[in-house]
Design brief:
Helix content is 46%, strand content 14%. With 346 residues, it is an alpha/beta fold. It folds into two domains: 208 residues, Class I glutamine amidotransferase (GATase) domain (Rossmann fold), CATH 3.40.50.880; 113 residues, Homeodomain-like (Arc Repressor Mutant, subunit A), CATH 1.10.10.60. Strand 9 and strand 10 form a beta hairpin.
Length: 346
C-alpha cells in the first residue's frame, strides 16, 4: 500500500484587525474540500477492494500565523489565536494567503509582515491575497507588473500606492502566472471563498470543489471573471450623484446608439465638456461605462430568461451575436451560453 500524500500546507499570514471572513471563509472551504476528498476516497476503496492506491487524494494543513503569535484582534472584535510566523522557517509552504484588513490611502502596513512575505513567498508554490491583502503583496513587490484585483472600494487606493501594479477592479479573482510564479488576488470578503474554490479545483478537481461549494451552501462556484459589483451602481457611486439621472437613462436605452454626442445632449452639456467632466468624476470614459452596462444587462438577461442570443444582443445594444460573444469573452472569460449554463436558475 502506497504512503498517503502529504497534506498541502496552507499558511494564512495575518495582520491585526484582520477582516475575519477573509480568513475563515477560505479555511472552511479547504476543510470542506478535504472532507469531500476523504469521502470520495472511501467510496473508491470500497468499489475497488484490491486497489493499492489507498489514501486521501486531497488533504490540507492549515496554519494561521502573525508576527507576534498568540491572540490577535480582528476587525469585528472577535479575537483569534495565531502561531508566530518565525516558527514556520523549517516548514514547507504550499500556498501562502494574505487576508485583508481595513486599509485606505494613508493606513500604514505592518512593516514586519511585509518583510516576512517578501522573504518567504519565493518558497511557496503559489501566493494569494483576499481583499486588501493585495496591499501587502504589492508592498512586498510580488505584484509589480502583474494584473491584480482587490475590493472594488480599495482598487483606486491600491493603484495610487503601488503604480507598478496593473489594477483591474472588476473580477472576483485573478490568476496571474508569469516568470514561473503563480499569484492570485481576489475581491473582498466572500470572494475569498470563490478564490479558495478555484484553488481547490486546481488541486483536487472539479467534483471536489463543487462538493465543497454545496456544503458551504454556495449556490454555484463563480468564475473569476464575474463582476464584483453592479456597473450601474458602481458608476453612480463613483460619480457622487452628478450623473445619477444620466446613468438611469442609459440603462433604459442600451438598445439605442449611445454616442458621446447623444449622452452629452441627455446631460445638457456640450460633448467636450461632458466627456471631460464625466472622465474626471466617474474615473473612466462614457464609452467604457456604456460597454460595461451592456454586458451586465446581457448577463442578467441570460440568467433570468430563455431569450435567444440574437434577441439579447439587440436589446442590449450589441447589434449582433458576434459582438455579444466578443464582449463576454473579454469581460468574463466565457461565452454567453456557458455563462447561462453556470448561473441560470433551473
Amino acid at each position: 500500500m502506497s504512503a498517503q500524500p502529504a497534506p498541502r500546507h496552507i499558511v494564512f499570514a495575518v495582520a491585526p484587525d484582520l477582516v475575519l471572513l477573509d480568513a475563515c471563509g477560505p479555511i472552511e472551504a479547504f476543510w470542506r474540500a478535504e472532507l469531500a476528498a476523504r469521502a470520495a476516497a472511501q467510496v473508491q476503496q470500497a468499489a475497488q477492494a484490491t486497489s493499492t492506491t489507498a489514501g486521501e487524494p486531497c488533504a490540507y494543513r492549515i496554519t494561521v500565523a502573525s508576527l507576534e503569535g498568540g491572540v490577535l484582534p480582528t476587525f469585528v472584535g472577535l479575537p483569534i489565536v495565531t502561531e508566530r510566523l518565525d516558527t514556520l522557517a523549517a516548514d514547507a509552504i504550499d500556498t501562502l494567503i494574505v487576508p485583508g484588513t481595513p486599509i485606505d490611502d494613508t493606513t500604514p502596513l505592518q512593516a514586519g509582515l511585509v518583510d516576512w512575505i517578501a522573504a518567504n513567498a519565493p518558497r511557496a508554490r503559489r501566493v494569494a491575497s483576499v481583499c486588501t491583502g493585495a496591499f501587502y503583496l504589492a508592498a512586498a513587490g510580488l505584484l509589480d507588473g502583474r494584473r491584480a484585483t482587490t475590493h472594488w472600494r480599495n482598487a483606486a487606493a491600491l493603484g495610487r500606492r503601488f503604480p507598478k501594479v496593473d489594477i483591474d477592479p472588476d473580477p472576483i479573482f485573478i490568476r496571474d502566472e508569469r516568470a514561473g510564479r503563480v499569484v492570485w488576488t481576489s475581491a473582498g470578503v466572500t470572494a475569498g471563498i470563490d478564490l479558495s474554490l478555484a484553488l481547490i479545483e486546481e488541486d483536487c478537481g472539479h467534483d471536489v470543489a463543487m462538493h465543497a461549494a454545496r456544503r458551504l451552501v454556495v449556490f454555484m462556484k463563480r468564475p473569476g471573471g464575474q463582476a464584483q459589483f453592479s456597473e450601474a451602481l458602481a458608476a453612480q457611486t463613483s460619480a457622487g450623484g452628478t450623473f445619477d439621472a444620466l446613468h438611469g437613462w442609459m440603462a433604459a436605452n442600451l438598445h439605442t446608439e449611445l454616442s458621446v454626442e447623444r449622452l452629452a445632449e441627455a446631460a445638457n452639456m456640450s460633448p467636450r465638456t461632458f466627456a471631460r467632466r464625466y472622465a474626471d468624476e466617474v474615473g473612466r470614459t462614457p464609452a467604457r461605462t456604456v460597454s460595461a452596462m451592456r454586458v451586465e444587462a446581457a448577463a442578467h438577461a441570460l440568467v433570468q430568461s430563455r431569450q435567444p442570443l440574437k434577441r439579447i444582443a439587440a436589446d442590449c445594444g450589441f447589434g449582433s451575436e458576434q459582438n455579444l460573444r466578443r464582449a463576454f469573452e473579454r469581460r468574463y472569460g466565457v461565452l454567453p451560453l456557458e455563462y447561462r449554463t453556470r448561473f441560470a436558475a433551473a
